[in-house]
Automatic annotation (TrEMBL):
Peptidase M15A C-terminal domain span: 8-120
Signal peptide per UniProt: none
Name by which UniProt lists this protein: Peptidase M15A C-terminal domain-containing protein
Coiled-coil intervals: none
Organism of provenance: Parabacteroides faecis
Cross-referenced InterPro entries: Peptidase_M15A_C (IPR013230), Zn_M74/Hedgehog-like (IPR009045)
Length: 136
């Protein structure tokens, strides 16, 4: 899983989970989920990375149903579908501004100010909601 998905994103960072490692779980996305993750990267994360102009660290991409349960995610989480990634940057509000200015497609953007990350999702099949949520 060491290969690149795009210029700046690898399968490793899109599937890494500390909780999975600690619990001896594989956290490997099935083939159909990998296809969706490729679209998430190609249509949203990579163009956003280029527009932002600085590295974006993925702290949580794909989560298997079991990993998602262990981290306390809702069962319907888009992380399980390969549609979401948590993007850690020093200034996540700026990343959100760049996203909104860029007109890139997204389903949900949730800004976590204190934890300094932006949860981003994209629906590959179906309508995107362009929903922005600001959290402390
Ligand atoms: Zn998330």
């Amino acid at each position: 899983m060491g290969e690149r998905i795009s210029r700046d994103f690898t399968w490793e960072e899109m599937t890494y989970s500390r909780v999975a490692v600690e619990n001896g779980l594989l956290n490997e996305p099935p083939f159909e989920v990998r296809l969706i993750m490729m679209e998430l990267v190609k249509r949203l994360l990579q163009p956003l990375r280029v527009a932002y102009g600085k590295p974006i660290a993925i702290t949580s991409g794909y989560r298997s149903p079991e990993v998602n349960r262990l981290v306390g995610g809702v069962p319907s989480s888009q992380h399980v579908k390969g549609e979401a990634a948590d993007c850690y940057v020093p200034d996540p509000k700026v990343l959100l501004d760049v996203l909104l200015f860029s007109k890139l497609p997204f389903d949900q953007a949730i800004l976590y100010k204190q934890k300094k990350f932006l949860h981003l999702s994209l629906r590959v099949n179906g309508e995107n909601r362009y929903q922005v949520i600001i959290n402390k």
